[in-house]
């Protein structure tokens, strides 16, 4: 399992949005405050957006855990009655930085006056009944792995893309009163303690390696056949972009699974040899590396082969 952590890295990569009583107001220059909740009738339904760059998670990875960490803003250590908020994702392959209200509305959706919800994730996580925050402390959201998984599972997702998330009470679920909100340090306040995204994930090839090592699943010829077909299909249709390094790892896993099988094959099992030969062809085509040759002998014990 691997871990990645990223903070917002530019002034326009975090923003605030609120309802002023008659219209929505959005700003990318949020000063020192990054707030959610209710302040007054003129600053209500407060929320924020955060963008995190260079999320190097390969397509097909499994998200094991994720959270956003916020540092309590020393200027606004609020402990108001009930603050309820929500974390939802920007459902795009490579999230852009925030620009203006129209851009924010198109991404956050109907909760802030947007035309539709096409660009927000189906998955979201409610973070309700936030206890009082204390100056200098960090606070982690509940697990948001379902939100991150939905973005990573997009067909156009690539390692190194950006992810944008929304932390808000745009649906007005917090108590109404005087300054009922939680305030976090923003990028403009302190870059070192700006919002931080933490993700723990398992890459596809790591899962296969773990399977081979633990032997929890026996990989037989049909499974190898399916894996080879997936590799070949991705090359032909080009619907999946797989770098040579990732293919190289997959081929090594396939080789390992073949080597652990019996090295004696009768006529009915000669397809095992064919699988290996196809891997050699794939290796040479994809990586430009010389493949392995097989020596096949036909004797009274059946077909035997070796490198």
Features:
2 domains, disordered C terminus, globular, 4-stranded antiparallel sheet, 15 strands, 6-stranded antiparallel sheet, 31% strand, 6 helices, 307 residues, alpha+beta
Question: What's the short version?
Answer:
The chain has helices at about 100-110, 145-150, 205-215, 220-235, 245-260, 270-285; strands spanning about 1-5, 15-20, 25, 35-40, 45-55, 60-70, 85-90, 120-125, 140, 160-170, 180-185, 195-200, 265, 295-300, 300-305. With about 300 residues, the protein is of the alpha+beta class.
Structural summary, described in words:
25% of the residues lie in helices and 31% in strands. By secondary structure, it is of the alpha+beta class. The chain has 2 domains: 2-202, no CATH class; 204-306, no CATH class. The strands form 4 sheets. Strands 3-2-5-10-7-8 form a 6-stranded antiparallel β-sheet, with helices on both faces. It has a 4-stranded antiparallel β-sheet with strand order 1-12-6-9. A 3-stranded antiparallel β-sheet has the order 13-15-14, with no helix packed on it. Strand 14 and strand 15 (302-306) form a beta hairpin. 33% of the residues are buried.
